[in-house]
Write a structure and sequence with these properties.
Protein name (chain B): Sulfite reduction-associated complex DsrMKJOP iron-sulfur protein DsrO
Number of domains of chain B: 2
Helix content of chain A: 40-55%
Keywords (chain B): 4Fe-4S, Iron, Iron-sulfur, Metal-binding
Distance between the termini of chain A: 90 Å
Low-confidence stretches of chain B: 19-38
Order of helices and strands of chain A: HHHHHHH
Order of helices and strands of chain B: HEHEEHEEHEEHHEHE
Distance between the termini of chain B: 55 Å
Mean pLDDT of chain B: 87
Number of strands of chain B: 9
Strand content of chain A: under 5%
InterPro entries (chain B): 4Fe4S_Fe-S-bd (IPR017896), 4Fe4S_Fe_S_CS (IPR017900), DsrO-like (IPR054822), ET_IronSulfur_Cluster-Binding (IPR050954), TAT_signal (IPR006311)
Structural class of chain B: alpha+beta
Number of helices of chain B: 7
Shape of chain A: extended
Oligomer: heterodimer
Organism (chain B): Sulfuriferula multivorans
Radius of gyration of chain B: 19 Å
Pfam family, one (chain B): Fer4_11
Low-confidence stretches of chain A: 29-33, 134-150
Amino acid sequence: MRRLAKGWVKPAALGAFLLACALTLAYAGSGTQESSRVPKPNVTTAKGEKCVEDTEYMRKNHMKLLRHHRITAVHEGDNQKTDKYSIVNCVNCHASAKDNSVTGPGDFCQSCHAYAAVKITCFECHSSKPSGSPPAFHPAVSQGPLNKTTRATMMRYQAYHGRLPNLDAGFNAKDVAGVIR
Amino acid sequence: MSDFDTYRRRFMGGVLGVAATAALPAGVLFWQTAQGEVKDGPPASDKVRWGMLVDTTKCGTGCDACVRGCDQENGLSGDTSPTSPQWIRKVQVSNPRTGYSFSLPMMCQHCEEPPCVDVCPTGASFKRADGIVLVDRHLCIGCRYCMMACPYKARSFIHQPVTDQLAEVPRGIGCVESCTFCVQRIDAGKQTTACQDACNAEGHQAIYFGNLKDPDSEISRRLASYRSQEVLASLNLHTGVRYEGI
């Protein structure tokens, strides 16, 4: 009798323990999503019902659309083809009602880029305010001048030196010559 | 190509360090974004060549209306310190022998053969199909070769961070810039520049702007009837800006 009871209780206790663990983990998991240390980006839009393309498409490809637009706008002087993809158009809809900008903390562009850890350099030159709005204050988020890494810079290096830089050997003045020529 | 991505951060850190040591200009490796957004108007076409004619006999000595108009249109500060961007400068020309003196606005001359485009290492400095010479700030690394190449000293470098840019005229630190013939207006279908409007408003009417390839445009008719000159014509740059009375 004793032996039988013992043989039956052990697996049951183990099962109960595992179930408790699973429930605890599930609870902790759901809790983590709601009270994460990393704030979720603010993707609410102040104006308009829908974007120029589907949300999923824009999330993945907005930079490609902007890049295409900049070529037609700057070099060809043609905005009719792609005007809806212009950065001015982005800002006009996505500027927050709070500070009339897209680069303040919690604003549309800035919050998502902060979440993804991708620096926005657009607004060092482009206005972060809707077009026609009067000049206002300095953007709350500093867009420092450094860290403008570019693939093209690397490619110039490679074109000049015929190889990629040996990063462990350190840099000298000749390396810089390869970049700025 | 994926090698590039794995290298980028360390690479740029190293290069920037060396650049600083070599006391190179801080803007030299920067990569900037820029250029205008517009509504309507035809794309740049080689059937058009935009040009300007300045009648220096009507240009008022001491008047800087064109400069202020330009500053307002393009969001420039109006500061005239040696390091401040200036797209137009008023120049006073005088002959010390005779004492005769006159003034003229000097800006990008929008050459047909622009030296700034020849020297640009990245292709940022370019000439549009309609003859307007521009800087693509997305491509400008701020090396300032174009500033050295320009015989008219027409280009400026932005040393300080810029805030409160106009939506139509993006501009920012680390890029070279110059007169754009108010390209944002042209791409929007207008055919006047801010300096011309300001000059007319002041009552001088010294600036004509229009299509040099259209024989019926006001500027072409005026060029055909009066003597005008390029500045430094011996360089054979065939500038888009010409002057009367120099």
